[in-house]
């Protein structure tokens, strides 16, 4: 479900976002991306397996980074400010020791999304733009509909200037500070 605020209605969009967030059942996600409010149900089992696999591979490389799920990020842009709930956030340990619901994206090294039929276009478009605007260095998109793992890097403005795609089952090299090949064969 998507709701878009009329031009210049930042406070209305924020009020609607707050109301929907309060009313959403547990496990449902409410996001405000590019002025549009999106409500999405919980992911399926395969979605959870992929997120867990990426998290485990990062943890196994013991590089001082942590994997966070269910963490909200503030995403800069035209009012109203965006609020995203990525499937996966990788940042240095201790980066989010506060009580904020939506965090500053400054410490984030990588943000990841796993597509579903209902989220694929948003993950490829609006969320990619939001993460680039936030200056998040790496955006990992596991695109189940296209059977690809895509690593976006070098954010400039509202887009990433570099993109590396591999078919799911092929390794995907993650640059430092991650510095390992992601085994997409586990997906």
UniProtKB/TrEMBL annotation:
InterPro entries: Nuclease_put_TT1808 (IPR012296), Restrct_endonuc-II-like (IPR011335), Uma2 (IPR008538)
Superkingdom assignment: Bacteria
Transmembrane segments: none
Domain Putative restriction endonuclease: 16-183
Pfam family, one: Uma2
Gene3D superfamilies with a match to the protein in the record: tt1808, chain A (3.90.1570.10)
N-terminal signal peptide: none
Name of this protein: Putative restriction endonuclease domain-containing protein
Origin species: Streptomyces hygroscopicus
